[in-house]
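User: Show me an example of a complex going from sequences to structure tokens.

Assistant: Sure. Here are the input components:
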Amino acid sequence: MAGNKGRGRAAYTFNIEAVGFSKGEKLPDVVLKPPPLFPDTDYKPVPLKTGEGEEYMLALKQELRETMKRMPYFIETPEERQDIERYSKRYMKVYKEEWIPDWRRLPREMMPRNKCKKGPKPKKAKDADVLKKIEELEKRDDGEKSDEENEDKEGSKEKSKEGDDDDDDDAAEQEEYDEEEQEEENDYINSYFEDGDDFGADSDDNMDEATY
Amino acid sequence: MKDFPLYRFGVFSLALRLPSTMTQAEIKLCSLLLQEHFGEIVEKIGVHLIRTGSQPLRVIAHDTGTSLDQVKKALCVLIQHNLVSYQVHKRGVVEYEAQCSRVLRMLRYPRYIYTTKTLYSDTGELIVEELLLNGKLTMSAVVKKVADRLTETMEDGKTMDYAEVSNTFVRLADTHFVQRCPSVPTTENSDPGPPPPAPTLVINEKDMYLVPKLSLIGKGKRRRSSDEDAAGEPKAKRPKHTTDNKEPIPDDGIYWQANLDRFHQHFRDQAIVSAVANRMDQTSSEIVRTMLRMSEITTSSSAPFTQPLSSNEIFRSLPVGYNISKQVLDQYLTLLADDPLEFVGKSGDSGGGMYVINLHKALASLATATLESVVQERFGSRCARIFRLVLQKKHLEQKQVEDFAMIPAKEAKDMLYKMLSENFMSLQVGCQ
């Protein structure tokens, strides 16, 4: 109350001198917009340190980034299914060494569950696979993404019930099965056309074909 | 009573941080490092653990919406690279915890590798590189990989002998740059109960740098040109299992890793030596370097000062070819001990004089100098003057700043506010 200078007159609720402005001094203009994103600076940053060591380390860093991507520790994200399965994709897989951890050093729950299903019942598995594949293809045709999502959700629910390795198992089996089947049924010789090869570059292999 | 604002040096908390107090920027950085080195799945799991702290397997899978299988793979990779550790809790539940600061160390990999190159040349460099790339390896595996890599770079017909690589490995172990990982304790089969959910890995202090007696005989192999395929070249067939796995491993279960703390100690020593060289001269810095080298293994890395070293011992340990007389050495030591920076201290008179390196004081001086330099480059030399003042006096009122720094009021106010707004200073309101 003692600080009031009268009705309607602006009065500070704190001691203005505390912040460093003397009484009655003109206050700086009110700023109506946010400060600029890249304001001019009076002092430019010091240039980066360079030298033999630094350059070597930079080259090393680039190399390490590339190398790590090729190591088995780099886990690739499973790709989304594309609308058309490219023929060449199968043959472009980069060779990656498999890494098997030392299970003795890890908690027991880290070990993948035993996959013993492959041996005893190959035929039944194949049938199941064919049915599954047909199902998937049907669903795919109906409208890709939303159905796939549903499928994935169902798949993950199933997984948590049955055991996580079934999916991997089936996927692995399916892949192998695919290759075998296709290799049998195709009339094409797989090595005949490869991406980027000149036509006729492999013609030495197929002397029975007529060349024009 | 009037309140005057006191300007105080903003304390930068460089102290040990718990996982939950990692800043957003640090977490983002960890995320990018993990993604770049291990892919998105590992990144997702790693960042989740950094954010939430210790968690069991199923909770991680549930909270991240990732399949158990993927989580397991990711955790295996992270554990292999010492980025995540596990602990058995009550009722046999295993919980996994991220080692956040260790993730950030990935930024220094090139520096660790380059440092080894300067100390132990190409062979040493590749040993440390393989250990960092793989997290941990047995000595036999490292020697083989490095011999193969070195052979690739040699002229036709020449190969790298395993023995030479082994020797370098032993030197790295002796100087503590590589160390043994904690291992699975050998069970005596006295406990017939069910196996524990997770092994408790242990290491004996004295075994940490003990190299197993191996007779690694062999030479590096070049990759045959018909097998050679550069990354990305198409390979039609599924890769076959490598036949090497069938050979018995002589040092099975004994894994080695790079000892990052030892590298940090080396960086610290380098910083101190170059500071002395800048401030005084080459000879002084060589003396300090010798003292640090003598203390390498006897003094722990967090000690405030080295073990006392006598002038006689230092004289004997000077590098071969350094021809200064004992008298000159003593003069240098006295000068160093008298210097106001107090990098070197005298702790006694026996043995020609006992001297120590004041590690903590030296590091504090270096840190201060760095901060002052940052302020100078960012705000100018007058701000730097104010900053040094406030640093020295701890608390100052605005009026005192103007007087001590001999800077007009308006400018002083401006500068103080600028540093305040960028968190180099903090305000403390106190009563007079």
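The lines above are the inputs; the final block is the predicted structure for all two components together. Residues 9-19, 226-244 of chain B have pLDDT under 50 and may be disordered.
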